Automatic annotation (TrEMBL):
Residues 303-313 have a biased composition (Pro residues). The gene is LOC123121371. This is L-ascorbate oxidase. Its cofactor is Cu cation. It is an enzyme of class 1 (oxidoreductase). Gene3D superfamilies: Cupredoxins - blue copper proteins. Keywords: Copper, Disulfide bond, Metal-binding, Oxidoreductase, Repeat, Secreted, Signal. Its EC number is 1.10.3.3. GO terms for molecular function: copper ion binding; L-ascorbate oxidase activity; oxidoreductase activity.
Length: 548
């Protein structure tokens, strides 16, 4: 069947954390509506840009876009942006059940509020039916971070010399709801502690039942730790793939990831419990984001704040704790898709923070990524070779000599919009190598997201990756497939995918500021197999050809 949506994108005054903010909304709301579909459905979203003076593009995060690379919604990669006053029809098939998300993919627009969830149910009788049961139903939890500054102020600051860093968010949102401390603001500030838009979300449960919570993080910056006070969570799905169930007290979730967890409503029904999200991996400067779990039939009013303090989460800098969760996340034995035993090509990608022309940038093998004006998909399909740098970025870096623990000068770092061209159908290994930043003794977590594919998560390590040693430690037995994976501080992450989806695909750090500062690459595969491009994705392309 076909699921139709008609979305008007516009700026509205919103009060997500009680503070008035101009946000980019879908049909007047942020977050936008959850798209619900069944595996195999065609989703058609007609996006009308009513922003007046701003372009837009929407990415369907986790949907592979098999045969529809032009619907990926990635400005500069798969399409020209949608101009004010224009409409664009995104049409794609959701071929696999699971928990996904959508969000703006143009400049730093995602942080302005354009985001939401996609929930795809297994088709009846499908071999992809869940290998777990829950008798209580489902709840959706969309996690976000929130700033009072506009994305324009943020982006201009990032590009300035010296840099004005975005800083830690003012609030953490659960389903678009947070709570800023109005008394900390000037009395005339537009902060309304009783505004209905910032009332905490209440999740109701029937005592004794088991619930599936679908959790997605669309944060712009923050790595989060999510907890349901007093209730253990059994992790059963991530990024649309079933995992071998494991139990946690709290869940680390990076921007761009999704999880499903099961919880049993088996606690005292006469009180409420916190849902809490806390910043990890960066030194927190943001209060805990909260929502409320309430039992039907209990003596507590559903909206009553729980009698306890919200959980504070684990130590923010305990990366060993987070690596343990990464390692525990493996494929469900009945739903394992074993990876091909070896790769045809291995690309090592050093993630470093650099200074280029006095500006702080992120670079991959010393190349800081920029998007071309003419989308790659259009440029390659139509042979517009002047549209982007034809020199491909490097395959590796000085992996025998680079000190990932030291501040490195990284001379000769450059900026480029060149891309990697992959042999169609080939198996590609990518090893993401983290390193120290410009400041000593500092390395951050980077959630890398691959468009157009799921990849096998073969391994994680701390320190410098050694191609002669570490591949022998890869998990080739039951690696889980994902579309977003963390590279831990000073560590490396190895992944494998098959380049079998004709198109051009972004692969980048899902921290919005980091992608803006160049932390990404693009892959092309099978461009000659891509069908005719819709006219609507080419509106920024000169008819004379693509010039830089
Ligand atoms: O990219 C980043 O820049 C800042 C800082 O390194 C420079 O201000 C920061 O914390 C990042 O993650």
């Amino acid at each position: 069947k076909t699921v139709h949506k008609q979305w008007d994108i516009s700026y509205q005054f919103t009060h997500s954390d009680c503070v008035r903010k101009l946000a980019v909304t879908i049909n007047g709301r942020t977050p936008g509506p959850t798209i619900r579909a069944v595996q195999g459905d065609t989703v058609v979203v007609t996006v009308k840009n009513l922003l007046m003076t701003e372009n837009v593009a929407i990415h369907w995060h986790g949907i592979r876009q098999l045969g529809t690379p032009w619907a990926d919604g990635t400005e500069g990669v798969t399409q020209c942006p949608i101009l004010p006053g224009d409409a664009f029809e995104y049409r794609f098939v959701v071929d696999r059940p699971g928990t996904y998300m959508y969000h703006a993919h143009y400049g730093m627009q995602r942080s302005a509020g354009l985001n939401g969830m996609i929930v795809v149910a297994a088709a009846p009788g499908s071999a992809d039916a869940e290998p777990f049961a829950y008798d209580g139903g489902e709840h959706e939890v969309l996690l976000n971070d929130w700033w009072h500054k506009s994305t324009y102020e943020q982006a201009a600051g990032l590009a300035a010399v010296p840099i004005v860093w975005v800083g830690e968010p003012q609030s953490l949102l659960i389903n678009g709801r947070g709570r800023y401390n109005c008394s900390a603001m000037a009395p005339d500030a537009a902060c309304n502690a009783t505004h209905p838009e910032c009332a905490a979300q209440v999740f109701a449960v029937v005592p004794g039942r088991t619930y599936r919570f679908r959790i997605a993080s669309v944060t712009s910056l923050s790595a989060l730790n999510f907890e349901i006070e007093g209730h253990e969570m059994t992790v059963v799905e991530t990024d649309g793939h079933y995992v071998k169930p494991f139990v946690v007290k709290n869940l680390n979730i990076y921007s761009g990831e999704t999880y499903s967890v099961l919880i049993k409503a088996d606690q005292d029904p006469n009180r409420n419990y916190w849902l809490a999200s806390n910043v990890v991996s960066r030194k927190p400067g943001t209060p805990t984001g909260t929502a409320v779990l309430s039992y039907y039939g209990g003596r507590s009013s559903p909206r009553a704040p729980p009698p306890t303090a919200p959980p504070a989460g684990p130590a923010w800098n305990d990366s060993a704790y987070r690596i343990r969760q990464s390692l525990a996340t493996v494929a469900h034995p009945e739903h394992a898709h074993p990876p091909p035993p070896r790769a045809d090509r291995t690309i090592l990608l050093l993630n470093s923070q650099n200074k280029i022309d006095g500006r702080i940038k992120w670079a991959i093998n010393n190349v800081s990524f920029t998007l071309p004006h003419t989308p790659y998909l259009v440029a390659l399909k139509h042979g517009l070779l002047g549209a982007f740098d034809q020199c491909p970025p490097p395959e590796t870096y000085n992996h025998t000599g680079y000190d990932v623990y030291g501040v490195q000068a990284n001379p000769n770092a450059t900026t480029s919009d060149g891309l990697y061209r992959l042999a169609f159908g080939s198996v590609v290994d990518v090893v993401l190598q983290n390193a120290n930043m410009l400041a000593p003794n500092n390395s951050e977590t980077h959630p890398w997201h691959l468009h157009g594919h799921d990849f096998w998560t073969l391994g994680y390590g701390v320190g410098r990756f050694d191609p002669a040693v570490h591949p022998a430690t890869y998990n080739l037995r039951d690696p889980v497939m994902k579309n977003t994976v963390a590279v831990h501080p000073f560590g490396w992450t190895a992944l494998r995918f098959r380049a079998d989806n004709p198109g051009v695909w972004a692969f980048h750090c899902h921290i919005e500021a980091h992608f803006f500062m160049g932390m990404g690459v693009a892959f092309e595969e099978g461009i000659e197999r891509v069908g005719d491009l819709p006219e609507e994705i080419r509106r920024c392309v000169s008819t004379k050809g693509g010039h830089h």
